[in-house]
Design a protein that fits this description.
Elements: E1 2-6, E2 13-19, E3 24-28, E4 67-69, E5 103-110, E6 120-125, E7 128-129, E8 132-136, E9 139-144, E10 151-154, E11 165-172, E12 185-186, E13 190-195, E14 198-199, E15 205-212, E16 215-226, E17 232-241, E18 247-252, E19 256-258, E20 263-273, E21 286-294, E22 297-306, E23 311-314, E24 317-320, E25 323-325, E26 327-332, H1 345-358, E27 362-365, H2 372-381, E28 384-388, H3 396-409, E29 415-422, H4 431-447, E30 453-457, H5 466-469, E31 472-476, H6 482-488, E32 494-500, E33 513-518, E34 521-528, E35 533-534, E36 541-542, H7 548-556, E37 561-567, H8 599-608, E38 614-617, E39 629-636, E40 640-645, E41 648-654, E42 661-666, E43 671-678, E44 681-688, E45 695-700, E46 712-720, E47 733-739, E48 742-748, E49 766-769, E50 775-781, E51 788-794, E52 797-804
Parallel strand pairs: 26-27, 26-37, 27-28, 28-29, 29-30, 30-31, 31-32, 32-37
Antiparallel strand pairs: 1-2, 2-13, 3-4, 3-5, 5-11, 6-10, 6-13, 7-12, 8-9, 8-11, 14-16, 15-16, 16-20, 17-18, 17-19, 17-21, 21-22, 23-24, 24-25, 33-34, 34-35, 34-36, 38-39, 39-42, 40-41, 40-43, 43-44, 45-46, 46-50, 47-49, 47-51, 48-50, 51-52
Helix pairs in contact: 1-2, 3-4
Bound molecules: beta-D-galactopyranose.
Domain Glycoside hydrolase family: 696-802
Keywords: Glycosidase, Hydrolase
Protein name: Glycoside hydrolase family 2 sugar binding
Length: 805
């Protein structure tokens, strides 16, 4: 994919932004044995600019035996599981106990045409996990510690025009930044940027809404740099374009002259008459073009998507465009089934689409900056974002990380609040915590006066430390302290930065053993301890957490509380609370790691969306002796529900405000049917005991793929009986064969105890078991395109084929 931002009049490329994802070379190194680590650390590579001793970074180093990979790439997902691995990271054989798996080397050659000479050339990494060092043509260009913020290197002086160049990156994933699966490698995009010497950058253009009346008053600014060797004069010309690309506002700044190496920030106001507002229902986006004109020539042109909207954070709640809005949010970690943290943009859109369909209106980037594609998807699909920096720390490294995050994301329509940290138990209630918070909040207000910050504090009614300094008090759990806190803080807005942490395993119903301790955790658990699964109902939660219906009814009945972010939208690898090995993945998700809904999904959907919901659980393939009492839950937003088993009524009930309907039903094979009424309308839903599995069904989320290796299709896999009814407890092993110019990049099934392979080498047999009736295959498009066919086969089942273009 080649993305360039061409001059609208002359057609010449003013600024280029070229994707550099394809065709990298990759090899594991070694964290403790330099002889297995390209002899890095044996030679003193920092004694000379171009060291004679080091050749791993030179163009003629022979990397032909290295593996060829396309980015995004996460090597952790390809590693085996090991009991010696780290609980919080999902027991992958990575980290200090596995030095042989924890260093990754990447190399990439690229050409620059002679016509690029004279331009500034920049290398942009959107995310590398983590601790990366980079060389270009043998010369060291820098070190980037964070696994979550991006880094740009100006490589103008080092590149060759008209002959090959080489980038070398050493990645050290030995240490963690979080307590959850974090992946390893260059797991986001890499770009090659080129621009002129009098220029700005996407991060230094900033637009926000000051007020909305007959016309929307916008603040626009751009920081312009002079990298010429003489003084230059420039003007900034702004235009705002609507969706139809029609220019609806313009402004040109006065001439400014600046010396070499100087930078100047130019600010202005622009007005948009009758602006279309951005909100979660109508995510209308405008484009700001920032043109820099120097000596009569356009020297830079930057396009920025933005939304016109106002945020107001009041003691009685949050207002979007003057309208009060409850935050119905989810916290999300960034890994997905099959691919680990290496998500193509299409997969980010897929996941955000699932959250939208559930009725969520907000996303918390727990606990670090997420991929730029997440923010783009939230802008376009209409989800608010609480954007979080990795640590509550005002030291140089972390202040810089927070600044990089704000500058990267502040133009996004979706970002409504910054989060300066999470559960720093040792300092959050101290004076140090308070001082750090004040520094970070003040930095945020300087870089982005249009928003405020919060912090995820796992304390109740407390006023010390961060809580005293934070504009919006964030509650992680501890809602027992809410009422008292509200009384003592009548002027502070309050939000649920983290709520619920209900645990459940998709499709698991039996056996039901109630425990107040599991895996060393106290709490309330309805668990199958033998297989380390939890009942797929809103019943289990560790001591600090709650049922979904507990936190949400508290929230819904409290007009002051802004709403909250459920821990979590999707299951993620690591933190298999309350269990441990062989459990490797969390149970917190409203959906599993593939995005398949658990039962609690329908609770949220019933209260968060407009769609009529009538959802019965468990499924009715229970294999129980006739007459065994089954606890049947129904989630609904209808007014009342009547339940029938094989045509006989089991009684009618009024739907409780924020709870669930409940029947004890003596088991009998057949059909369980619910009939609900909403505004006088009848709604029905039913579940039936199926016959045995008969055929495989493949459900791709789309069938058209874009060539160029950047597109993906998610294919969901299930099994039906002879009558075409999905078999909810099917567990067949399915094999997948793909033909055409595309590749299977991962498979998954949402089983938090599965040690099956997620990824496969070229030529290897691709297979995955169904877990409670479902699994998933993720396909990446090829370079050229054409017809692609996926075939799924399994012993004794009718095969399925899906064709894509
Ligand atoms: C919170 C924490 C999250 C996650 C969660 C599990 O305390 O902020 O990252 O660990 O608990 O319930």
């Amino acid at each position: 994919m080649l993305l360039w931002l061409a001059h609208p009049i002359y057609g010449q490329a003013i600024r280029e932004h070229i994707l550099l994802d394809n065709g990298w070379k990759f090899s594991l190194g070694h964290a403790t044995d330099p002889t297995k680590d390209l002899f890095y650390r044996v030679y003193n590579d920092f004694s000379k600019t171009l060291s004679k001793g080091i050749n791993f970074s030179s163009i003629d180093y022979d990397d032909s035996a290295w593996q060829t990979v396309d980015l995004p790439h996460d090597w952790a997902v390809t590693l085996p599981f090991s009991e010696k691995g780290d609980w919080s990271h999902g027991y992958k054989a990575l980290g200090s106990t596995f030095p042989e798996h924890s260093i990754g080397w990447y190399r990439k050659t690229f050409d620059l045409s002679k016509s690029e000479a004279g331009k500034r050339i920049e290398l942009q990494f959107d995310g590398i996990f983590r601790d990366s060092r980079c060389w270009v043509n043998g010369i060291y260009v820098g070190h980037h510690l964070s696994g979550y913020t991006g880094i740009k290197y100006d490589i103008t002086d080092l590149v060759h025009f008209g002959k090959p160049n080489v980038i070398t990156v050493r990645v050290d994933a030995t240490q963690n930044e979080g307590w959850f699966y974090e992946g390893a490698g260059i797991y986001r995009h890499v770009w090659l940027n080129s621009y002129n010497s009098v220029h700005s950058s996407p991060e230094e253009v900033f637009i926000y809404t000051k007020s909305i009346g007959k016309q929307a008053e916008m603040h626009a600014e751009a920081t312009v740099h002079n990298r010429e060797t003489s003084s230059q004069t420039f003007q900034v010309e702004w235009s705002i374009l609507n969706r139809e690309k029609k220019v609806i506002a313009t402004h040109k700044s006065a001439n400014t002259t600046f010396a070499p190496n100087e930078k100047v920030t130019v600010k202005s106001n622009l007005n948009i008459p009758n602006a279309q507002l951005w909100d979660t229902e109508h995510p209308y986006l405008y484009t700001l073009t920032t043109k820099i004109i120097s000596n009569g020539k356009t020297t830079d042109l930057i396009h920025t998507r933005f939304g016109v909207r106002t945020f107001s954070y009041q003691p009685d709640g949050f207002y979007l465009n003057g309208k009060k809005m409850k935050i119905k949010g989810v916290c999300v970690h960034q890994d997905h089934a099959g691919v680990g943290t290496a998500l193509l943009d299409e997969l980010q859109y897929y996941r955000i689409g699932l959250l939208k369909a559930m009725g969520a209106n907000a996303y918390r980037t727990a606990h670090h900056p997420h991929s730029p594609a997440v923010l783009q998807a939230c802008d376009s699909l209409g989800l608010l974002v609480m954007d979080e920096t990795r640590l509550l720390n005002s030291g140089r490294e972390y202040r810089q990380q927070f600044e990089d995050l704000i500058k990267r994301d502040r133009n996004h329509a979706s970002v409504f609040m910054w989060c300066i940290g999470n559960e720093e138990e040792k300092i959050q209630s101290t004076e140090t915590g308070e001082r750090i918070a004040r520094t970070l909040v003040s930095l945020q207000q300087h870089l982005d006066p249009s928003r405020v910050s919060t912090y995820g504090a796992n304390v109740g009614n407390e006023n010390e430390g961060v809580s005293a300094a934070i504009p919006v008090r964030g509650f992680n759990y501890n809602l027992y302290g809410l009422t008292d806190y509200e009384k003592t803080h009548p002027n502070q807005p309050i939000i649920g930065t983290e709520v619920a942490s209900t645990v459940g395993t998709r499709g698991v119903y039996l056996p039901e053993i109630v425990l107040d301790k599991a895996g060393g955790y106290s709490g309330h658990f309805v668990a199958d301890t033998l297989r380390a699964y939890l009942l797929d109902q809103d019943k289990s939660y560790p001591s600090w957490a709650s049922q979904a219906q507990q936190w949400y009814s508290t929230t819904a009945n409290d007009p002051r509380f802004m709403g909250g972010f459920v821990w979590t939208g999707f299951d993620y690898r690591g933190e298999p609370t309350p269990f441990a090995w062989p459990n490797i993945s969390s149970h917190f998700g409203v959906m599993d790691v593939c995005g398949f809904p658990k039962n609690v999904y329908y609770y949220y959907k019933a209260h968060w969306s407009e769609s009529p919901i009538l959802h019965i659980a468990p499924h009715w393939n229970l294999n129980l002796p006739q007459g065994t009492v089954v606890k049947v839950w129904v989630y609904s937003n209808t007014e009342e529900v009547e339940l029938f088993l094989n045509g006989k009524t089991l009684g009618k009930q009024k739907t409780p405000a924020f709870g669930h309907l409940y029947w004890e039903v003596p088991y009998e094979k057949g059909t369980l049917k619910a009939v609900g009424t909403k505004n006088g309308k009848r709604i029905t839903s039913e579940i039936t005991t199926t016959e045995k599995p008969f055929a495989i069904v493949l459900s791709p989320h789309k069938t058209q793929l874009k060539a160029g290796k950047q597109d993906a299709v998610v294919v969901n896999v299930s099994v039906v009986d002879k009558k075409g009814r999905e078999v909810p407890n099917a567990d067949a092993l399915i094999q997948f064969q793909l033909t055409g110019d595309a590749r299977i990049i991962g498979v998954g099934n949402g089983d938090p105890s599965s040690h099956e392979k997620d990824t496969f080498a070229e030529g290897e047999r691709v297979e995955r078991k169904l877990f409670n009736g479902k699994c998933q295959v993720i396909i990446r498009s090829g370079e050229k395109g054409g017809k692609v066919q996926l075939r799924a086969i399994s012993n004794g089942l009718k095969e399925a084929v899906v064709r894509m273009n």
